[in-house]
Amino acid sequence: MRTMADVARHAGVSVATVSHVLNATRPVRPATRDAVLRAIDELGYIHNTLARSLVTSRTRSVGLAVSAISNPYFTEILQGVEAEALATGYGLLIADPHDDPAHELSVVRMLHERRVDGVIVAPSAEPSALLAYLDRADIPVVFLDRLVDEAEEPAYDQVCADGVAPVRELVGHLASLGHRRIAMVAGLAGLSTTGERVDGYRQGLDAAGLPFDPGLLAHGHSASDGARLATERLLAAPAPPTAVIAANNAMTIGALQALRDAGPRIPEDIALVSFDDFEWADLFSPSLTAVRQPSRDLGRLALRLLLERLDAPDRPARTVRLPCTLVHRTSCGCPPD
CA-CA distance, 141 to 306, in Å (whole number)? Predict the structure, then answer.
């Protein structure tokens, strides 16, 4: 069996340098790093991470618990976490809590039992049991996408996209196109993302001088089926909306289904815009005006925050919000570029 000393001799470097490359414990010049990696490949050396974990009390693995991993938004977040983990020499264990508080607790406990060094969690709408377990077990954690503590000095590290300003901008854009009855299909109650996007919706109406009509705020529960039913109710109202904002990508699909079945044309009869961009949004007819979240950056930042927490357990917790981008296409009624 090849050893680290064999790799060092083959690459013409010290054993300490090989260790720094393998464990990401110190910067190494790119040429030297390449020589070490080439020696590892040529010799077929396999690094014994288990032996290292016995010495350092770390497994160099982290857990990621996010629901609806098949959702393109969370898939891109996963790609960001995975890329950063790979770059820093960490392994990644993934679990799906299904947005269910009991299952959420079970999967985080499972990750903990597998001795991950810390966890990244997109929490459910009712995370109290999860928080109690994390505090009791003293598990390093970063909350992702959804906040559990909105205080100025939070108790936990958190990273999310700004949900207020982009929706406010969407409402302002629709109002500038002449819309006065702007509806919103909101997400699951209890999620910070839902609250922020509804706040942005109401702020946008106020800034445009439009009254808030509770009948135009429908709840799609963050799901396609829920959004379809909510949009059907909006369209059946005596004074239906002339524009609809769907508050995530799954609900955009549900809203599109309801509009297709009811018959109004987009954007001639009704405008439709989305919070969450699709990779294929410009292939729709008409193409979809949407808010693009920095999904991969959120994933990368979450992993960095977790590693910072592991290195400095006593540093103050912080919440980081990343800005979003409004992508203008034609479903809002704007002419094509």
Answer: 7
292-313 pLDDT per residue, tens: 999 999 999 999 999 999 999 9
The pLDDT tens digits of the residues spanning 201-215 come to: 999 999 999 999 999
- The CA R_g of the chain, rounded to the nearest whole Å, is 24
Yes or no: say if 101 and 129 are a contact pair by the CB < 8 Å rule: yes
Degrees to nearest 5, angle at CA 85 with 11 and 194: 165
Do the domains spanning 4-47 and 165-293 agree at the CATH topology level? no
What are 267's two structure tokens?
């954007």
Q: Which of 152, 242, 143, 243 is nearest to 193 (CA)?
A: 143
Of 83, 87, 10, 91, which Cα lies nearest the Cα of 50?
91
Structure tokens given for 230: 């909510």
In terms of CATH, what superfamily is 4-47?
lambda repressor-like DNA-binding domains (1.10.260.40)
- Of the CATH numbers 3.30.70.3270, 3.40.50.2300, 2.60.40.2470, 2.40.330.10, which one belongs to the domain with range 165-293? 3.40.50.2300
Strand partners for 142 = 120, 157
